[in-house]
Write a structure and sequence with these properties.
Layout: H1 9-34, H2 36-47, H3 59-72, H4 85-96, H5 103-111, H6 120-135
Length: about 140
């Protein structure tokens, strides 16, 4: 490496490392193209939730739950920071194989509802729990 100063040497090493990483990524992409079924089967088994919403369940009902949990600040990250609305929405999307769309807009749609409809789904869930409580003979 004649003519190169010692200061430039570390950069050459980093460039070589970056080229090596890019070559590995290109190999993986070529394998994915050549054997797509192998990669697809593996991805589907790992990342798809087995749960789905019943047809009568609306996305705004799920967003009621997401909004309530978000506002409660009882869902946190591993670092104990309060979860972001977007991440909580994504978790529910994965859990139920749904697409909520714009989380903040759906959140505002819940918050802006008329008082009688504000927590309609949550009230329904609470009533189901109360009814089961009574059916089991608890008073």
């Amino acid at each position: 490496m004649c003519g190169l100063s010692k200061k430039k040497m570390p950069y050459l090493h980093l460039i070589e490392e970056a080229i090596g990483l890019l070559n590995n990524e290109m190999r993986i992409i070529k394998l994915r193209i050549k054997y797509p079924e192998q990669f697809q089967q593996h991805a589907n088994k790992l990342f798809l939730s087995p749960l789905h919403l019943a047809d009568k369940t609306s996305l705004i009902s799920i967003m009621e739950i997401v909004s309530g949990l978000f506002l409660s600040q009882r869902i946190i990250y591993q670092n104990e920071k309060t979860v972001h609305l977007t991440d909580l929405g994504k978790a529910f999307e994965w859990l139920f194989n749904i697409k909520l769309g714009d989380y903040h807009q759906k959140y505002m749609d819940v918050i802006k509802r008329k008082p009688a409809k504000l927590t309609e789904f949550l009230n329904e869930l609470a009533n189901l729990i109360r009814k089961e409580h009574e059916n089991k003979g608890y008073r």
